[in-house]
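Quick one:
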Amino acid sequence: MGLIDTVRDQRDCWTKRFEEQRQQNGDPEFDKLSEQEQERIIQENREKVGKFDFNEKR
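Output:
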């Protein structure tokens, strides 16, 4: 499972950099949320990276 672990580590690193950049640039809507709500959204975004729902109706 070495390849899977490598890909997962790269993905986690990428999402961490993205969240840091978003915090530096500032997102007014995101800043209005509580600390717990921000952490929940960040965790959801990390879990969603690379996942697509093809059953979603347009």
